[in-house]
Structure formats: C-alpha cells, structure tokens
Amino acid sequence: MNYQQEIAFLAAVEKAEDSSNQRRAVTLKELEVIRKEHPGIAETYLAFLAQAGAGSFRECQFILYDGPVTPDDVWVEEINDKDVVFCGDNYSGGFFGFRLGKDEVIEFWRIDGEISATGKPFPLYIRERLLMD
Fold first, then answer.
1. Which is it for the CA torsion 48, 93, 90, 129, positive or negative?
2. Could you read off the pLDDT of 90-131 as tens digits, one per residue?
3. Model confidence over 10-58: pLDDT tens digits?
4. Residue 79 has what pLDDT?
5. CA 17/CA 33 separation, integer angstroms
6. Each residue of 60-92: b (16+ CB within 10 Å) or e?
7. How does pLDDT run across 57-98, given as a tens digit for each residue?
8. How many angstroms from the chain centroid is the CA of residue 32?
9. Is the pTM of this model over 0.85?
10. CA of 129: how far to CAs of 40, 73, 114, in Å?
11. Overall domain count for the chain
C-alpha cells in the first residue's frame, strides 16, 4: 500500500512548524516486533506507520500510536476480546483499531462502552480521519 497521496495532502494542509503535528516513521525493525506481538495486524496500518508515521495529525484531531495497544493498556475494562487492539484515539475517549486478522477498523467510545464496526478498511478510514474525503 502506498500512502503518497495522504502524505502530500498532509504537507499541503498542516503547518510543519506546529508541534501538534509531530510524527515519526516506524522502523522496519519495530514493524517486525509489532507483527510478532500482534499476529494478524492489518498490513495497511503498518504501511501507514512506516510511510506517514505515528503521532498527532491535523493539529491534534487524532493520534496514531507507534504500535497497537490492548484494551488493558488503556484501562478499557469493558472489552475482554484478546483479538481487539487499538491503534489510535481522538483525545476525547474514542479509540479506533482492529480485530486481529481483519482490516476493518473498529471504534470504541468510553461513553457507551460499545465496539462499533465501521465497515471500512484502514486506507479508507484514515483518509476520512485526515479529512481528505
């Protein structure tokens, strides 16, 4: 998966000097560790981490973590499904991520404690989060 359009879009709309747009590309070594620790993680997500990077996007509209986290890692006790991982959040109690083995993005909101399927693969979902589409 190639994310050059998304990277070019961000370069055009974000202020490079704004510290709320800080990101770093995840290394190939780090990606291998992620694959080992989370077999079945969406490769489209990993490609985005390698190309566009992890960190804050669009002046803190959302953050993309430098690797998936489990619900326990972020104190979400309502989810006991070991296949659920989060890859980012909206800074307001809303997480997004995957069920391992699937590319469809899921969302979880602390306010209702429910997982919602978005019906969208990561490339489409991230374009919407970036406000491209």
1. positive
2. 988 888 999 999 989 999 887 777 788 999 999 999 999 999
3. 999 998 888 888 899 999 999 999 999 999 999 999 999 999 999 998 8
4. 62
5. 31
6. eebbbbbbbbbbeeeebeebeeeebbbbbbeee
7. 888 888 999 999 887 666 666 666 688 899 999 988 888 999
8. 17
9. yes
10. 23, 23, 20
11. 1
- φ, ψ (nearest 5 deg) of residue 46: -65, -40
Boundaries of domain holding 31? 4-129
The HSE-up count of residue 51 (CA atoms within 13 Å, CB side) is 16
Q: Please report the pLDDT score of residue 118 as a whole number.
A: 96
| CATH number for position 24 | 3.40.1580
- pLDDT at site 29: 98
Whole-number Å distance between alpha carbons of 86 and 127: 18
